Amino acid sequence: MNLPEKARKLDEADVLRAKRADFVLDDTVYLDGNSLGALPAAVPGRMADVVAREWGRLRIRSWTESGWWTSPERIGDRIAPLVGAAPGQIVVGDSTSVNVFKALVGAARMAHAERDEIVVDATTFPTDGYIAESAARMTGRRVVAVDPSELRTAFGPRTAAALVNHVDYRSGRLHDLPGLTAAAHAAGALVVWDLCHSAGALPVGLDAHGVDLAVGCTYKYLNGGPGSPAFLYVREDLQPRFDSPLPGWNSHRDPFGMSPRYEAADGAPRGRVGTPDILSMLALEAALEVWDEVPIEAVRDKSLALTDFFLECVTAYLPAGRVESITPVPHAERGSQVALRCADAGEVMDALIARGVVGDYRRPDVLRFGFTPLYVSFADAERAARVLAEVISTR
Ligand SMILES: Cc1ncc(COP(=O)(O)O)c(C=O)c1O
Ligand SMILES: Nc1c(O)cccc1C(=O)C[C@H](N)C(=O)O
User: Fold this and answer.
1) Mean predicted confidence (pLDDT) in 218-227
2) Which of 11, 165, 257, 290 has its CA at 20 to 30 Å from residue 199's CA atom?
3) Domains of the chain: total
4) Of 291, 318, 338, which residue constitutes the final position of a domain?
5) Cα(392) to centroid(ligand 1), Å
6) What was the pLDDT predicted at 10?
7) Residue 304 is part of a domain; what is its CATH number?
8) Is residue 233 in some structural domain?
9) Which domain covers residue 75, as residue numbers?
10) Is the pTM of this model over 0.95?
11) Closest ligand (CA of 37)
12) 326 in helix, strand or coil?
């Protein structure tokens, strides 16, 4: 069977095939959902209603009558099953960077003062590293950057908290969340997980693995839109000890009491700060409708099948040695993207985009292809590899 035929067969057998119709797509092969997810078809209509009716006509009444005020917790509970969390532990709002700050300072404040180190993975997305440095300065600690392969043994009696990326944004490597969480706990430390590249792409199992705190964005695999608000998870039994470094009035026990004295709310709302960005918040809520009746396990199965098939096509179509995959082959170590090291990667990506295959380029030499199982097909994967081979053969 040739590869286009194989793609056709795989698409026919795909249990998520019908989901593609829930998105606004064209004939572009869109493999950049790990940076900005595609637009779910339900969003424009819902936004028109939010703007015209809820804002335009109900105005201030919408904070209560349209459920605006409680949307951060409500939408947190909608995300919760996708990351394996029971209700009441996730709040939506602010950017990922801000939530990394809240979570990491919050974790460091829970640790004994004698523990003077904050461990980060050395390949972290930059914002996490920058914020860890600031969190360390604020809490009287120092940052220790550790190669992900050595994290397990890096946790010790000096570790206050760790900040680890679940999936590496560049290589697509999936880190061992259960094992590293257990290792940190054995050393008496707390871990904050950054789920930006795993939420909506694979099962995370926050509660099952005893994760302490986690953050993630919603504009990648959750398709919430550009700059859609991020989420913060604080495990239920840690919530009473969570001392937010940004205790804005929205996290007060009685916000409308307008008291000069701060008293933290119980539960997930303790992670709130100020007035939520309602338009983005409600766009995200509408976007999450595509998840109705979608088991995250089915998404994971398709994601692995897509990345396997794309790698098979790349191997078949490209001259040996022209690109090198830096994404791990074992499924247990792979997120939902394929990263190919390639000479002139920036120009190659420009040429791919010009031919209707959209991935992205990460300096100095990486072509990144994100596979969003809800709307990417096996035919897309085959076409992307074929066009990549054409582009490379003309150079
Ligand atoms: C792992 C990771 N953390 C954080 C961010 C970004 O944070 P923010 O949403 O604050 O821009 C990204 C992507 O932009 C990311 O890939
Ligand atoms: N958040 C982004 C943005 O505002 C503009 C462009 C790209 C992004 C991204 O999300 C980048 C992404 N986190 C990455 O993994 O490279």
Assistant:
1) 98
2) 11
3) 2
4) 291
5) 31
6) 98
7) 3.90.1150.10
8) yes
9) 47-291
10) yes
11) 2
12) coil
